[in-house]
Amino acid sequence: MAFFLLVCQGSASVFSQITERPRPKEWDNLVEGTRFIDRFLPMPEGKLSANVWGGENVVPRFVDNGIEDDIRSYWGGNIIKGDDGKYHLYVCGWREDSPKGHHTWPQSIVYHTVCDNSVGPYIIKDTIGPGHNPEIFKAKNGQYVVYVIDGYYLSDSLYGPWKYGKFKFNPRDRKIIEGLSNLTFTKREDGSNLMICRGGGVWISRTGLSEYSQISNKRVYPAVDGEFEDPVVWKDNVQYHLIVNDWLGRIAFYLRSKDGVNWVTDPGEAYLPGVISKHKDGHCENWFKYERIKILQDKYGRAIQANFAVIDTLKNEDLPNDRHSSKNISIPLNPGMLLTMLNKDPVDENTKEVRVLIEAEEGFSPVDDLDLNSLRFGSSEYVNYGKGTKVLRTEKSGNNLIVVFDARGCGVDSKEFAPKIIGKKKDGSLVFGFMRVPWVDYNPSILSARKPAILPGDKIEVYIDNFGLKASADSKFELYAEDGKDGRLIAEGVIPPIEPYSDVKLVLDCKNKVDNADKGYVVRVLSENGENTWNIDSLKK
Length: 541
What we know:
By secondary structure, the protein is an all-beta fold. The protein has helices at 366-369, 380-383; strands at residues 48-49, 61-62, 72-81, 87-95, 109-115, 123-130, 135-138, 144-148, 151-155, 163-165, 169-170, 184-187, 193-196, 202-205, 212-214, 228-235, 240-246, 251-257, 263-266, 289-297, 303-311, 326-332, 339-341, 353-358, 370-378, 391-397, 400-406, 420-425, 430-434, 447-449, 453-455, 459-466, 475-481, 488-495, 502-509, 521-527, 530-536. The strands form ten sheets. The chain has a five-stranded mixed β-sheet with strand order 11-15-14-13-12, with no helix packed on it. Strands 3-4-5-6 form a four-stranded antiparallel β-sheet, with no helix packed on it. Strands 7-8-9-10 form a four-stranded antiparallel β-sheet, with no helix packed on it.
């Protein structure tokens, strides 16, 4: 199936920013509710106007959605709800009449804007300072951090005053993956921060302000030939989530992880141009580009709204004092159901039933609203393609509902960390949800090696760090030379238990000498969280 393209007829320059990328054929068999794009809801009703800037593709539109005006062009930014009950959008922008038009973005200014609701209109409250693509988060000490490319602003209050600073980054002997720009952050369960850089590298800071350490050896993005940018990461009460955009193919991918380090890519598009910014009557604000996606979360961490930087035409065609410009828009999301797995033991061939508690929430009664015959439970791989198991019976639990599924054919095994339910309400609208399982460790140790060094006397020295949230068990370290199909074992040893944010030094005897003809080396760390493999071209001396 070819990529869904919305292009301006007769404009050859369009194709410098668009390419066709084939979808996997199996995506044709996905059911509704599989793709992240299925979660987008109609834009809330607002002030509809045609007497505004923009091409015919974005007129009429809701001018009170997000932030826009005739003075500035706005771009990326994200929203946080304050203790004052207001919503705060930290967004960047520049004067629309700037001589370079859209290409004034390197001189962006970060604005603090405020609204009584999450959608808009957002009004500028104050100016923070120069910067592009801001993302606000809360550090472990309670301070607010507004990240911008190459730095950050820090304050005790959402209203400032703000002090500029710079993060410290420690690549830990690794190559920084495509530079340190367009960073995105989320909080781990101990209050530390996980960061994904534009290139897809994973970094961890113990406080959000302390040094960020790179722990990944390669990008976590899907293994496709994409031109990736605009990652956004968040964590809810079940798992970590990540969306990244292939800007050239104009398609975004959605990934999930139990620990923020090991990721799986869900099938289907996370979002596409021209189909997500719809009104309730079906009218679509057909923006040419959707970039810098950011996520607003509820108290459970669920994604309840997406914000995008959007532009009505090619960036090169957005000139000063013309009809073109850009803004930041808000689109609500279906947050999914709150689910609890009641089985305590792993699902296996002897398991007959799976019991799941579905919680009632404001505006949602599982007892009254669910079409029980439509529900399917199982592993994501099964449920996404219309498989999974059906409901056997239900039990009321106050306002909540316990749904009992047939365990046979659900596809849940030891590798499944977030089983899924997809179905519908009686009114035909989508319901879905993920759940944790009691037998999976969602806060494992995360062992990561530094580059091994050659010591005199045919010995190898290596430091192992634990960036996980619990102490590690005995683990194994191996070092191979890449001189054949399976490599030549240079050194191996046992890694003793390591406390979180601590390290150990191993000094190991060489089983085989390091040869100057070695073409490279493989570092392997085998722990309870799986195998971490790192290919390097040389050892420290």
